[in-house]
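ok so i was messing around last nite and threw this chain in just to see what happens. nothing serious, just curious
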Amino acid sequence: MLQQQDLGDALANPSDMAHHLSRRARGLPFWFSVATHGTEAYEEAMEITLQVTREATQLIKNAPYLELLLEPELSIIIFKRNGWTPEQYQAWSDKMLNEGRAFVVPTTLNGETILRFCIINPRTTIEEVAEIINSLE
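result:
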């Protein structure tokens, strides 16, 4: 049963006691960022990541030891290393993470172990991605 809150002479408004008022305003950080940097900064950042994605996709297509599994629509690249077992994917991923070079974890597609790049940081360069791709050779 809802208990009345003692607000003195003010009337209690049940909407002031709703559960959603205890959560942080999730949209506020984004709004502040857009207000500070403008939509053009977001557009530029997105275009940079999409360009790196296109260039990385071409590097994967050109590497004879890799196979692109799906053409990227945005900034996710799905590919595999020909001839690798799930254990080899995991060992490579662990090595990259332990060296602080990249965080690329194996995943599965239709029961097959594969790799997936998700390029979201506009500071990521094609040179950095090429280094990761070359480490798969």
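not much to say yet. Helices lie at 27-37, 39-62, 86-98, 126-134.
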